[in-house]
Amino acid sequence: MEGSGSTGDPNANANCTNKIKKPDAPIVTLWAWYPNSEAVVDNFNEANDDVQVCWTNAGAGGDEYDKFQTAISAGSGAPDVVMVEGDRIASFQVQKALVDLKDLGYEDVKDNFSAGAWKDLSVGDGVYGAPIDGGPMGMIYRTDVFDKYGITPPTTWQEYEAAAQKVKDAGGPFFGDFAANQPAYVTALMYQNGAEPFTYDPADEGAIAIDLNSDEIKQVLDYWAGLVSKKLVSTQDQFTPEYISGVIAGDYATYLSAAWAPGYLQGAGVGEGADAKVWATAPMPQWDPASPVAINWGGSAFSVTSQAKDPKLAAKVAFGVYADQKSLDDGWKNQIIFPLNQGVLKSSEFQEYKVPFFNGQQANKEVYVPAANAYKGMTYTPIGQYYYSALTKQIARINDGSATGAEAADALQKDVVGYAKEQGFTVK
């Protein structure tokens, strides 16, 4: 992108979607896709005299990653700072496309975020992203369905299955959904049961430990295979018009999802008609309620690319954009993000907020802030996208009845180990 790191160049902001407020300052280019990115960038530019952000929406998620990958392969064309989801960082880091932020301002902002938030953005000893938001998980449910069938929010997976059976026996809807197209969500469920699917440190000379058929993972997959076989949950792909239609129609009593879900659901038309004021949320059911485990689904960061002209200045942008109070407030009040900044999580305004989608429930205080603070993080790897694809295939086998959970786990282990070896990794 032209103009990266330029000073006083009349063409420096030629590709900016936003208007540069202080044209004499150095320019740092940024790719980001959140709906309020321009407002957030404007807030940063207004507050800083020594650097200005030139923002471009290069597409959301995969569209942006494809363009970034093209720039990595070409050795040019990448922005100084790029928005990246946590589970994608390792695949870009292994290509040396991202800069370690440990010595570029990390220590100054370290205490603003939990250890789990940082772990998700770390590869080995390096930190390759500045946290923006996350997806602490809870159990969204329909109060009308729970009331009709005399159900209270289950606190364990055993109770979840019992409630599902009770609703089914009474002629009610599916209790939930086990979607093959959501492998990241299923991976979070594995972590909740104490699984460690991967161990990876780039300092360990290309070695990776893969443990996808552990007892913990087999227990999770067998549990969901059981719910599917008993027709207690559906197997509808999520994030589809069909799924949303079912949500609105009351086809599912629960939606196990993240703190960003209300924004997504409302944007898709949920909660506006007959299903208005029927939604609530509760903590995720646990395997062992005496030792609850918080899990997370989703979240993004700003990473400094190895093509940045001035990494130190780029890091200031990465750590500073979406870090000011005005931007953070806009993010959560408009349900665009669930911020991980402790200044927000600890604020009484955020904790006491009565979420309209949940009919005034103080969902942040009751469910999502405790989950965010208790979350310990995951270990992501450069083969993460292949793993997701392989897991999707195995969930589909579970859902069509051609494999038990344990059989799917064994097949998954064999598949992913074979791929890792093909890619030159030493599998431990």
UniProtKB/TrEMBL annotation:
Stored InterPro entries: Bact_solute-bd_prot1, SBP
Protein's name according to its UniProt entry: Extracellular solute-binding protein
Organism per entry: Microbacterium elymi
Upper taxonomic lineage: Bacteria, Bacillati, Actinomycetota, Actinomycetes, Micrococcales
